[in-house]
Amino acid sequence: xxxxxxxxxxxxxxxxxxxxxxxxxxxxxxxxxxxxxxxxxxxxxxxxxxxxxxxxxxxxxxxxxxxxxxxxxxxxxxxxxxxxxxxxxxxxxxxxxxxxxxxxxxxxxxxxxxxxxxxxxxxxxxxxxxxxxxxxxxxxxxxxxxxxxxxxxxxxxxxxxxxxxxxxxxxxxxxxxxxxxxxxxxxxxxxxxxxxxxxxxxxxxxxxxxxxxxxxxxxxxxxxxxxxxxxxxxxxxxxxxxxxxxxxxxxxxxxxxxxxxxxxxxxxxxxxxxxxxxxxxxxxxxxxxxxxxxxxxxxxxxxxxxxxxxxxxxxxxxxxxxxxxxxxxxxxxxxxxxxxxxxxxxxxxxxxxxxxxx
Length: 358
Fold this sequence. Notes:
The structure is a single chain. This protein is mainly alpha-helical and 358 residues long. It has two domains: 60-208, no CATH class; 218-358, no CATH class. The chain is built from eleven helices and four strands; from the N terminus they run αααααααββαββααα. The longest helix has 40 residues, at 46-85.
């Protein structure tokens, strides 16, 4: 009997690689499998994006403003002959401030809504419709002061509008048979009316005023807006380049003393250079334009800080988002609004009439 002897199968020898397995070879393989680096341009920072939006929408708003002021001045020329034929006591100068009145009436509802949102954060809820009507009534009141027939009742009408807004807010609260927060509602409605309508009253009054020492024109309104916004521009770029010392860190951390100085200086230079064009019908010197512009620029920054205080109280960064790069309507008009009463006083004090335009 033959026994079959089995031998264990020998294991085949390992195949050797044609190249040595070194660390460099592994790193090469790893690099092949690794994701490629992102070569796309980095996304702009929020500050750069805001600056780009400002440079885009700023000229657009300025162009719209110029167009509205052109319409204002053109409407005065169109109505001059009509008023002469109808023997209007406005002495044939035409209807002034029509374009500015339309602009204020269009802007007021949006600004009232933003202001009411800021107030609501502190449980102050003004009646928006009543405040909007009150602001519009104040704008119409300033517009009508150019007519002789209205001047005899202008003071009493102004007092009536203010009291009427307060009474309407009280009646609106009583209509709902509620007494809770009645005082807060009345105060908030009146404050919103005076903040927008009261300050806007001075802006329109500058346009339509005509007295022995003060002649209103679109150039005066344009001077206020350009000087105030020049301060904002100078403070922004001056602060970015030279800012070291914070102005009011607890209120507006981005503002610096160096930026404020640059902005005020820029506004003074612009006022001194362009005073003969802005005040072409008034006798004034370059230093008068410099002083007026410096004061208005400083007050404009105070108006910006005033709104910053309200936004801090409401814990919001901007009053709205309707204008990219700027925020809301209040973020744009806060400085000119607060500067308007001071401009009214300064124009009356420093300038006098030399020749009445015919």
